[in-house]
From TrEMBL:
<feature type="region of interest" description="Disordered">
    <location>
        <begin position="64"/>
        <end position="86"/>
    </location>
</feature>
<feature type="domain" description="Phage conserved hypothetical protein C-terminal">
    <location>
        <begin position="94"/>
        <end position="165"/>
    </location>
</feature>
<protein>
    <submittedName>
        <fullName>Transcriptional regulator</fullName>
    </submittedName>
</protein>
<dbReference type="Pfam" id="PF09524">
    <property type="entry name" value="Phg_2220_C"/>
</dbReference>
<dbReference type="InterPro" id="IPR011741">
    <property type="entry name" value="Phg_2220_C"/>
</dbReference>
Length: 186
């Protein structure tokens, strides 16, 4: 949850600045109600402060513009070569397979489909994702500590998925042995 900050900017005038003294060529305002500039408290917004007439004043404001660009060297959001509709259909197919194989009921929501679409965008195939689902279910579903991690955000986590896929491919090449032998393929 983001904290809320008061983003009001407050400015103050440094009355001791030499540019604001009579030696700084600032002339007093016509009809000013105070001769001592430090004691002047009329607000400009209320129209109580009369303007200077023909004052030869230096400009004390400066307008600056700063443009910044962040270059990361890597696309932060890789784009798949596949059209979005294909990616969505594949993501739905993978999620439906996960639901069928696990007996769970993950909804077609952003939190469930997002990690799946992310791996599809990295050019992993739907069949590779389904193989990884089968492997993680075989390995984790019977383990009371691991069964809670059978979910899209864990299986398809960007930093972990390639390792899960590698283990799933070894498991598949070995004939998909029962879970007792799964640790040999991790």
């Amino acid at each position: 949850k983001k904290t809320q900050h008061d983003r009001t900017n407050y400015y103050s005038i440094n009355h001791a600045n030499p540019l604001l003294t009579d030696e700084g060529n600032l002339h007093s305002s016509k009809n000013a109600n105070c001769t001592d500039r430090v004691g002047q408290s009329a607000l400009i917004d209320q129209g109580n402060m009369p303007s200077s007439i023909r004052a030869n004043c230096p400009r004390l404001t400066e307008n600056t513009t700063e443009n910044t660009t962040e270059i990361t060297g890597k696309d932060s959001c890789p784009v798949s070569a596949k059209p979005d509709s294909d990616s969505s259909e594949d993501a739905f197919r993978v999620l439906e397979h996960l639901n069928r194989a696990s007996g769970l009921r993950f909804q077609k929501s952003k939190s469930s489909l997002g990690p799946i679409r992310g791996r599809l965008a990295e050019d992993f195939t739907a069949d590779e994702l389904i193989l990884t689902v089968d492997y993680t279910i075989a390995k984790w579903m019977q383990d009371s500590r691991m069964s809670e991690y059978v979910r899209p955000e864990t299986i398809f986590r960007p930093g972990k998925f390639p390792a899960y896929l590698g283990s799933a491919q070894k498991w598949n090449q070995a004939g998909r042995p029962k879970c007792e032998t799964c640790p040999l393929y991790t």
